[in-house]
């Protein structure tokens, strides 16, 4: 029987699950920081599997100070966003996942890389993809057309947020990123290291 905590947007946080994650964090990272390879192991991600690229992008988004490690405060801040953040905060976080080089813009290559990772994860987990008839390049083209309002081939954070808020298809294409909690919990269930 796990305790749950209701947040202001009525999502539940399983206190026991958070306590278990903290215990695992301390056990796996006695130094107090997670490196990328430990992050992948922590969530049971095969270093070369379909979720590897996505995990790397999540790691980068969690690493707020850019030191290539995640300390427990960054970890807690990320979990807080994942479990309690509103749509705009989650979109801001998703933008950071997409903006691989952290230059403030998502270009076609970055967009293609993330969409390809999402497709591989969904295919690997047999997740139903309502838009599976579209290729990765078709999805990228459609996203750029829907979101890149000034047509410069780059998506800034404002365009990214506005596009996702205004177009249900765009938001649906970001679904995996919009539910990092679900992805994290799914990886934890798959992990044999728990």
Automatic annotation (TrEMBL):
Keyword flag Metal-binding: yes
Pfam families reported for this sequence: EF-hand_1 (PF00036), EF-hand_7 (PF13499)
CDD domains attached to this UniProt entry: EFh
Domain EF-hand residues, every copy: 50-85, 86-121, 135-170
GO molecular function: calcium ion binding; calcium sensitive guanylate cyclase activator activity
Domain of life per record: Eukaryota
Gene Ontology CC, one term: cone photoreceptor outer segment
Gene Ontology process terms (BP): visual perception
This protein's UniProt keywords: Calcium, Lipoprotein, Metal-binding, Myristate, Repeat, Sensory transduction, Vision
Signal peptide: none
Protein name in the entry: Guanylyl cyclase-activating protein 2
Organism expressing this protein natively: Seriola lalandi dorsalis
């Amino acid at each position: 029987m796990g305790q749950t905590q209701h947040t202001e947007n009525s999502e539940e946080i399983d206190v026991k699950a958070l306590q278990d994650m903290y215990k695992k964090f301390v056990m796996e990272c006695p130094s107090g920081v997670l490196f990328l390879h430990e992050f992948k192991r922590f969530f049971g991600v095969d270093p070369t599997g379909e979720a590897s690229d996505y995990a790397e992008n999540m790691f980068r988004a969690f690493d707020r100070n850019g030191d290539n490690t995640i300390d427990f405060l960054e970890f807690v801040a990320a979990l807080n966003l994942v479990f309690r953040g509103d749509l705009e905060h989650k979109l801001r976080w998703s933008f950071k996942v997409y903006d691989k080089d952290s230059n403030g813009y998502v270009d076609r290559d970055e967009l293609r890389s993330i969409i390809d990772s999402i497709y591989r994860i969904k295919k690997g987990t047999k997740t139903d993809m309502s838009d599976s008839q579209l290729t990765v390049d078709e999805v990228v083209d459609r996203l750029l057309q829907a979101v890149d309002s000034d047509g410069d081939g780059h998506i800034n954070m404002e365009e990214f947020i506005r596009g996702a808020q205004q177009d249900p298809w765009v938001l649906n294409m970001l679904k995996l990123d919009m539910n990092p909690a679900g992805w994290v919990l799914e990886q934890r269930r798959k992990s044999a290291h728990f």
